[in-house]
Amino acid sequence: MLYGHTCFKPEFDRDAHTLYLRHNYVPSPYTIYRGVSKLKPGCVLTVGGSDGSNAVQLPYWSARTTVEEGLREPFRGTAAQACDQLEELLRDAVSMRMEADVPLGAFLSGGIDSSTVVALMQAQADRPVRTFTIGFHEDAFDEAANARAVARHLDTDHTELYLTHSDAMGVIPSLPTIYDEPFADASQIPTFLVSRLARQSVTVSLSGDGGDELFAGYPRYQLGRFWRVAQIAPGVLGRAISWRSPGEWDRTWTRVGRVLPRSLRRRRVGEHLHKLATVLGGDSDSVHLDVVSLWADPHEIVLGAIEPTTVLTNPQAWPAVDELTERMMYLDTVTYLPDDILTKVDRASMAVSLEARVPLLDHRVVELAWRLPLEMKLRRGHGKWILRQLLERYVPRSLFERPKMGFGIPLHDWLRGPLKGWAEELLDEHRLRAEGFLEPGPIAAKWREHLSGRRNWQDQLWGVLMFEAWLERQPVYA
């Protein structure tokens, strides 16, 4: 902790705060502290000079180089051969990360990534692998039954814990110190709790993180292809979507979903459709930024700030990638994956002295993934096609073929219900105005809309709430 050093003066970086509100994390190399930078992924820091002033970051592995080389020298074999090679690499990557002289287990959500990791673990283990799952009493967020079915098929030693809003409230006070700077991926709560659950039995746990970015798992990657077609009449499509509110779309989709196969059911359809409407008429260079942004104009919320440039806003930092979907995958790999996903898992697991290992991000797997053609990842509207083929060698498709849920919590309902009092205190307009960091008006407007049920602003509000909770615990100089 920098706060432990007597010379450290924590000066607040308002410009970095705009990036935080846009993404709900502070992207590398920025931090929330002025004059403090993060070490970039894949780099070694060499410090010289008696005062440490001669510091140089040297890369030992480059995602950009990997992407460019993979696209320049693509995999030429059949899909079956690609699946064989991926299986061989992943088995070895998993085997290497199973080497431990302490108890070992794995997180299991029942999704494709974690199920693949656990299947390859169990195939090489001489006893049942310890697996751990978090469940929710709200059906729309509960994956515990899916994980239980996969665990039963693979014959793992399975443990699950069902969460309530009280469990969330018990974790929230610790989040500012766990993450050191504002961090607002709401799945940080179940990630911490499943880490704590696992730590009761094991010291090392394997995770399935990385599969979405490498194998086109996020639903937004389908936008890459749809966007080109939509440019024929972006205005017409945008207006067709926007004529109904997100809440109305959600209610309609809920009714339709009762007669749809499970594979076509989705959460928060209205919010995703309205996000789509905002990007249809934009430039292809801005599509990814528009899709991943929470506050579209955060510099208007943070007082006295100018939003800095990041890799997302600097096309000169991008590899030579023609396909929009692959560009989006690359940008997620160098931003969202290290700064959100891996940060979340690392801090949450380390907070309970659990070591998390991520075999899907073995550099050999990453390099093979970028050699595979996009059609082996994204096919017929489904991502992770090649991973699905691999997993089916170990687990029946009926146990994992379902809509992607993510590791979410029913935050929208909790903010209107059991967490409402806590949130209202932190979002109080007088409090925000007195602190002098944020413009209270837009925040208050979103809070009122959220409470009314007309819109779901949980992600935007959670970012403000986590900043306010952090500010209470970490004093800074404005």
List keywords for this structure.
alpha/beta; 7 strands; five-stranded parallel sheet; globular; Rossmann fold; two-stranded antiparallel ribbon; 478 residues
Plain-language structure description:
The protein is of the alpha/beta class and 478 residues long. Residues 256-265 have low confidence and may be disordered. The protein has a 5-stranded parallel sheet, with helices on both faces. The chain has a two-stranded antiparallel sheet with strand order 1-2. Helix 8 (188-199) packs across helix 16 (336-350). The chain contains 23 helices and 7 strands. Among the domains are: 63-216 and 330-399, 3-Layer(aba) Sandwich (Rossmann fold); 228-328, no CATH class.
What is the secondary structure topology, with strand pairs?
Layout: H1 14-23, E1 43-48, E2 54-59, H2 63-72, H3 79-97, E3 104-107, H4 112-124, E4 130-136, H5 144-154, E5 157-163, H6 165-171, H7 175-179, H8 188-199, E6 204-206, H9 211-214, H10 221-230, H11 234-242, H12 246-257, H13 269-279, H14 287-292, H15 324-334, H16 336-350, E7 355-357, H17 363-371, H18 385-391, H19 411-416, H20 420-426, H21 429-435, H22 440-452, H23 458-473
Parallel strand pairs: 3-4, 3-6, 4-5, 6-7
Antiparallel strand pairs: 1-2
